[in-house]
Structures are given as structure tokens and as C-alpha cells.
Amino acid sequence: MDELAAILIGLLGGAVAGLMGVGGGILFVPALVIFLDQSQVHAEATSLLAIIPVAIVGTWRQAGFGNVRLHHAAAIGLLSVLGVLAGTVVANSVPERALEIGFALLSLFIAARLVRRALRWEEPQPRPASASPTTDSSPARRADSGNS
Amino acid sequence: MSRADLAKLAVIGTAAGAFSGLFGVGGGTIIVPLLVLWFGYGEHEATGTSLAAIIVIAAFGVAFHGAYGNVDVGKGLLVGVPAVAGVVIGTGLQQRLSGRTLLLMFAALLVVVAVDLLGGWTS
Fold first, then answer.
1. Do B100 and A41 touch (CB under 8 A)?
2. Digits of tens for pLDDT over chain B (123 positions)?
3. What are the extents of the domains in chain B?
4. Integer CA distances (angstroms), A122 to A126, B37, B48, B98, in order
5. CB contact, 8 Å: B36 with chain A?
6. Which end of chain B, N or C, is less surrounded by CB atoms within 10 Å?
7. How far apart are CA B104 and CA A138, in angstroms?
8. CA geometry: angle at A59 spanning A55 and A64, to 5°?
9. Contact between chains at B1 and A15 (C-beta distance less than 8 A)
10. The pTM is what?
């Protein structure tokens, strides 16, 4: 039952990852702590492993839509190394309780941002004819009416 | 790529990386808004580029956390494999449909998680 819950949260985390361009770790970590009995720091480490296939497939999908600027992505990724190292060392040095509280605050911050984003979500609109000058000068049956 | 651009990318990478190593996340929460703000990315480009950067960031994270012996491969796959199906759904949703309900569900879930962590019900 707990495994099923972890799988479902994994699925939801992946969907949000694709939607928001994140890794999904903000859901993977609590899923691992609550349902798969990991400690906070072990869950964080394991979450990073789960993120890799998600990010690979997400990138592949987004590249198909023409949404990936590879040189910027590579620069950010490679230049992250010192930050990741520092974060990892701190995560393994501070008490678990401090890490839990920090993670909880991050969750609340992201929740607030998601609500803001959801509230101003714009549905795809049909383009209003008056707003943009239209170059479409096609009356019905323009083509192939060759009356000879 | 200009020197100023490179400096901005270094700041984004370092900040996202620190969050990633500290909290076990990808860092997209930092990358996406900064790409929009500093480089004028559109929303879809920012999310796509963020996912590509996260591949490298998470790989560093696994390597460093792995050195501490913290990574559980079996449990990672249990969560990560269904998540791959989820990300295909999510990227498809982003191109076509409203994700509003999904976002609000996600936000509610995060609040529950935060309260749980702060209250320590599970520990």
C-alpha cells in the first residue's frame, strides 16, 4: 500500500516536473520519507537519482517542441558543481530536524508560488481578429477555381 | 556568449545547485524564473531549458550524496520510473491544456507535507 502511494506521488511529481520545468524532488523527498521510511537526508539523495530519468525524458519531450536552449542549459548545469557540493556537505552536517524545517519552508514557498501561477493561468485563447493586423486575405475557395 | 551572460548563468547554476544538494530537488524553482527575468525567456523555453540543466545538476547531486552512501537505488527507481510517465503527461499538458487543477492540487499537497514535517507526525 505504501509502495502504491509512493508510485502515485512519483507519477504526480513527474507531471508537475513536465509542467513547471522542475525535477519533481519537492514531492519525491516527502514520498520517500513518509511512505518508504527513509530519513530526510537519505530521501534527498535518493530523490536526486529519481530526478535524472525525469529530467532526461522531460528534456527530450521539450526539445521536440523546440523549447530547449542547450548551450545555456549546459552552462547552468556545469557551473552548478560548487553549489551542489556545498549544499550536499551542509545537508550531511546539519541535524536532520534543521533539514526538515528548511524543506518544509521551501515547500510552503513553492506552494504559494504555484497558487499564484494557477490563479493567473491563461487558457490558450483563439487569436482575436481586431488585436493583430491580419495578413490572411483568403476568401472562401480562393484556390483552384480555374474557370477556363 | 558574453562574459556578463556567463556570470549570470554561473549565479543561476550555483544557486540552483546549492538548493539541489541541500534539499534533494532539481533547482528548477530557481532556474525557471531567473531565465525569464534575466534572459527574457518565454515560459515554455524556460521550463524546457531548466529540465536540461537539471539532468547535470542532479547527476552531480547523486555523485556527491552517493559518496556519503545516502542513495537508495531501488527506492529511487520505485519513485522515478512512474515519474517518467508523469513527465510525458506534464509536458504534453503544457502544450495544450489547462494545468490549473494540477497546480492547485500540487500546492495543497505541499502544504500538507510542510505541516507534516513541521509537526513531526511521521517521526
1. no
2. 889 999 999 999 999 999 999 999 999 988 988 998 899 988 788 889 999 999 999 999 999 999 999 999 999 999 999 999 988 888 777 666 555 666 676 677 778 778 877 775 544
3. 1-71, 73-123
4. 12, 19, 19, 8
5. no
6. N
7. 43
8. 155
9. no
10. 0.82
